[in-house]
Amino acid sequence: MGTAAKLTRENRTITIDFHDEATYFRLIDDGRAFVECVLAFLLALGFQLIHKATCRGGGCLTRHSHYARVRLGGITIWRLQCTTCRVVFTVLPHFVLRYRQMRPDVAREALLATHGGLSLERCAVLYHISPMALYRMVCALGHQSLVCVLTRCGLPLPVYVLADEKHSYCLTEKVYLPTIVCGRVIWHLGYTTEASAAAFTQSYQEFQRTASQQEPSYRVKGVLTDGFDSTTKSMRTLFPGARLGNCLRHALNKLPKKLTAIASPIRQALRSQFHTLLHRSRQRKGLRVFALGQRLHHFANHVAATAGVANGARVRRWFQDKKAGWYAVLTDPQMPVTSTLLDQAHNAIERKLFAMKGFHHPGGSQQAFLIGLAHLYNLVPYQRRAKHGHQCGVEVEGGTLPTNDWFLNLQILTSGGFQRAPATLHH
Ligand SMILES: [Zn+2]
Fold first, then answer.
1. Distance 210 CA to ligand 1 centre (A)
2. What is the pLDDT of residues 205-251, one digit of tens each?
3. Which residues 6+ apart lie within 8 Å of 318 measured at CB?
């Protein structure tokens, strides 16, 4: 295992779909045909190989590339070397995994079960593998960044995003998972041991950095958060020009907590009036920001009259604090209004975090494991609604996948040696 991991890091691995094993074994002895098949596959995907930055080799291999055949675990594998920058690409046929002890059909089942919320231990028993092998498999997927994989699918970098942190535990220590979601896909899933603005900034910066590398002109226009101070601060630092909104549904759920020492029917009535207020403000386009300011003012007076001066004052202070974030949501029609999709992503990841517990220690690969889980979240088809039956998050958001097979897609897209061809980068 150690040696295999080392080899894949020194080289760049690419997974190529040879359709069936027979085709692969027919091509394996014919150098020219083999390279042509690899090139045709790259062309069909719109992918290029990642050479060294200084390479003038044209981003692709030629028939003149050097190659070597090596035996790995009983199968002949090709290594192709760029004659210009001397980068070596290890060509893995689709029926071979980077983590070679596990057969792809076993990995497919085990990952699906993991994604479905079954513990690593239970998956391991079901598929006769070790829990550690499955853990490492997920971690291996996590070596490719979410931004790289999603842009390989042709998804544009997200302009309006949801950002929030999931609170969790590593053994007894509290930890946080800073997350960025756009629609049905997770663009960032980080891991921090502190809830400070500095810690969150460091995590979210990973996303910002990778995205800017992909597209130097990338700008986030709007971010919706739940209004947590550290989150807002880190977003302001990383995305200076972006509009920062506060989730309206979160506001609605927060109101009852601001109303103390009153009878529950009064609290419920006020909540439902607040709901109507936010709902009407959303419908009044154009004038709605002004309208919201007026309505909040009247509502705070109404709270003071029905629930007492103390509650009225508390609600007014809360409005002062949050209303800029609500205005931001209402002024830009493209801003997300609620963070529901982010909550759903967190709930899906939550179930798997429990599976981490046995592997949870301060020196563990939490970050890689989480990114691996996020890849599964983005690429495994889900059937929550008939409308998107058999589609994965990437497809729902308008991305294109290499094949119809989610597991093959996962293998191809998380291969380290691929990048999107520049011609298709800005489509
Ligand atoms: Zn090269």
1. 22
2. 999 999 999 999 999 999 999 988 999 999 999 999 999 999 999 99
3. 254, 258
* Full-model pTM: 0.88
Dist. CA 149–CA 153, nearest whole Å: 7
Dihedral of CA 409/410/411/416: which sign? Answer: positive
CA of 27 to the centre of ligand 1 (A): 24
Gap from CA of 70 to ligand 1 centroid (Å): 21
Instruction: For residue 84, report the distance from its CA to the centre of ligand 1, in Å.
Output: 5
The Å distance, Cα 59 to ligand 1 centre, comes to 7
CA of 60 to the centre of ligand 1 (A): 7
Alpha-carbon span 153 to 427, nearest angstrom: 11
CA–centroid distance, 419 to ligand 1, in Å, is 13
Distance 198 CA to ligand 1 centre (A): 39
Return d(Cα 386, Cα 384) in angstroms, integer.
Answer: 7
Q: Write out the DSSP string of 345-403.
A: HHHHHHHHHHHHGGG--TTS-HHHHHHHHHHHHHHS-B-SSGGGTTB-HHHHTT---SS
Q: Enter the tokens of residue 158.
A: 């997200």
Ligand 1 centroid–CA 277 distance in Å is: 61
CA gap 365, 362 in Å, rounded = 9
Residue of higher predicted confidence among 64 and 93: 93
Q: How many CA atoms are closer than 13 Å to the CA of 227, on its beta-carbon side?
A: 23
